[in-house]
Design a protein that fits this description.
Among the domains are: 202 residues, no CATH class; 95 residues, 2-Layer Sandwich (Gyrase A, domain 2). By secondary structure, it is mainly α. Helix content is 59%, strand content 6%. 43% of the residues are buried. It has 20 helices and 6 strands. Keywords: Cell membrane, Kinase, Membrane, Phosphotransferase system, Sugar transport, Transferase, Transmembrane, Transmembrane helix, Transport. It is found in: Cell membrane. This is PTS system N-acetylglucosamine-specific EIICBA component. It comes from Coprobacillus cateniformis.
Length: 473
């Protein structure tokens, strides 16, 4: 069960690399266009639109991961419409509910499931225009109505529990700060970190300004000059400015040689975004699903950084985000803020060597280390390389192979190397080897109960093309 869960999370993580590519440039522009720098409100407004769409990006990522079709356009359209319906139903039922990106994950996954099943449903001819691949655009938004109603009740105790948790954290000293940093990171994948953050950031403590104004919360109190504020905020400068750039360096270092250039580009932009803008999503989403243990390690280190800075009496807050710009601008308002630099340097190396060790030791599939189904010289003999089909009816051959591996509903994944069609099936017992050989295939090799390779020869790419086309019909 755990392997299945991790496999599904890995699919989501890989898919999220596509929509999340929109965030690095937006993050940098948002920070550089802020009032304390270039002061370009229109540019800032435009750039923050991307981060207001994180739930949409997650919905798209979930569809890319789980919709079983080559062309994802229709299910993505269904997910975007469905997310709007889902959020509208939540608001109508209880306007205080906020599910964050978790709403996108739920809606995207449910939409993909509806698409995978509904595209095969038979309906009267008069409704044919709306069925098939397009059926999801009608069905998914309708399904969001009962789903939204259900979550309007499910989410209330979840949100209330997190609010109570925030109250406990506020009075627990170094332990509370450690737990706050830990849960802040652990809740990001489901978008619930803001629930705990809200109390700490905007409700914790009070301070009376020289003009008699009463302000509440870590961020407002710090900016108003409260010398006791900033204990819960200082920790985040460590992972943003030092830790995650160290993680990026480790991910690049451990990438496969042929993928290093691509990985360097991805990790450099991610490290720059978190250092300059304090936007961590491009980096964190690159490994949180494909390697959950790395993300747990990152969460523990964030909490540890908070506890250490608390014990060293370090206070520092932010005006826009936890980044080098706010560090410099707010430095003189903090207490012992200089300590963040040596502690941060230590954490850079802890992240770097910790990530590098865990990636290599566990063979984690971080960016640049993904498994690839490709031709291996030692798998195929010279005789196999010389195999030629006795016919050119690739479409018919693909059709008969598909029939004799249990049909397209039994096919999980399909790839090909130089001579073999490689299949991952739900049920390998449905494979009829004798009939497959009658199509012109030279043999069937079983690597497990679900992994099958069919030896076809150097024309396998033409058969694979027809095979994949049939899966998408």
């Amino acid at each position: 069960m755990m392997n299945k869960i991790l496999k599904q999370l890995s699919k989501l993580g890989k898919a999220m690399l596509i929509p999340i590519a929109a965030t690095p440039a937006a993050g940098l522009l948002a920070r550089l266009s802020a009032p304390d720098l270039l002061n370009l409100p229109i540019l800032e407004t435009a750039s923050w639109v991307v981060f207001g769409m994180m739930d949409v990006l997650f919905a798209i990522g979930a569809v890319i991961a789980y919709a079983k079709t080559k062309d994802k356009t229709t299910p993505i359209l269904g997910a975007v419409i469905s997310l709007s319906v889902f959020k509208a139903v939540l608001t109508a039922m209880n306007e205080t509910i906020s599910m964050g990106v978790f709403a996108g994950i739920v809606v995207g996954t449910v939409t993909a499931i509806i698409y995978n099943y509904s595209r095969e449903w038979k309906t009267p001819q008069m409704f044919s225009f709306f069925t098939g691949d397009k059926f999801v655009v009608t069905l998914a938004p309708i399904a969001m109505i009962p789903l939204g109603i259900a979550f309007s009740y499910i989410w209330v105790p979840c949100q209330a529990g997190l609010n109570s948790f925030g109250l406990w954290i506020a009075g627990a000293g170094a332990l509370g700060i450690f737990v706050f940093g830990l849960t802040n990171r652990l809740l990001i994948p489901v978008g619930l970190h803001h629930v705990v953050n809200t109390y700490i950031y905007y409700e914790l403590g009070t301070f009376v300004t020289a003009s008699g104004e009463v302000v509440k919360g870590e961020i407002p109190r710090f900016l108003a000059g409260d010398p006791t504020a900033g204990l819960f905020l200082a920790m985040f400068f460590i992972p943003m400015m030092f830790g995650l750039p160290g993680a990026c360096a480790a991910i690049y270092k451990t990438a496969k040689e042929k993928n290093k250039a691509k990985t360097k580009s991805l990790m450099t932009s991610g490290a720059l975004t978190t250092f300059v803008a304090g936007i961590t999503e491009p980096v964190e989403f690159s490994f949180m699903f494909v390697a959950p243990r790395l993300y747990a390690f990152h969460a523990v280190l964030t909490g540890a950084a908070g506890a250490i800075l608390y014990l060293l009496d370090v206070h520092l807050g932010m005006s826009i985000n936890f980044c080098v710009i706010d560090f410099v601008l707010n430095f003189n308002m903090g207490t012992n803020a200089w300590i963040i630099i040596p502690v941060g340097i230590v954490f850079f190396f802890i992240y770097y060597f910790g990530f590098k060790f865990m990636i290599e030791k566990g063979d984690l599939k971080t960016p640049g280390r993904e498994d690839e189904l490709e031709f291996q010289e030692d798998e195929v003999s010279a005789d196999e390389m010389n195999i030629k089909l006795e016919h050119t009816n690739y479409q018919y051959m693909a059709k008969k192979i598909l029939q004799n591996v249990g049909g397209k509903e039994n096919v999980e994944e399909v790839e090909n190397c130089v001579t073999r069609l490689r299949l991952e099936l739900k049920d390998g017992s449905l494979v009829n080897e004798e009939n497959i050989k009658k199509t012109g295939a030279k043999g069937v090799i079983r690597f497990s109960d679900t992994s099958v390779q069919i030896i076809i020869g150097t024309e396998v790419n033409k058969v694979a093309k027809e095979f994949k086309a049939m899966l998408d019909e």
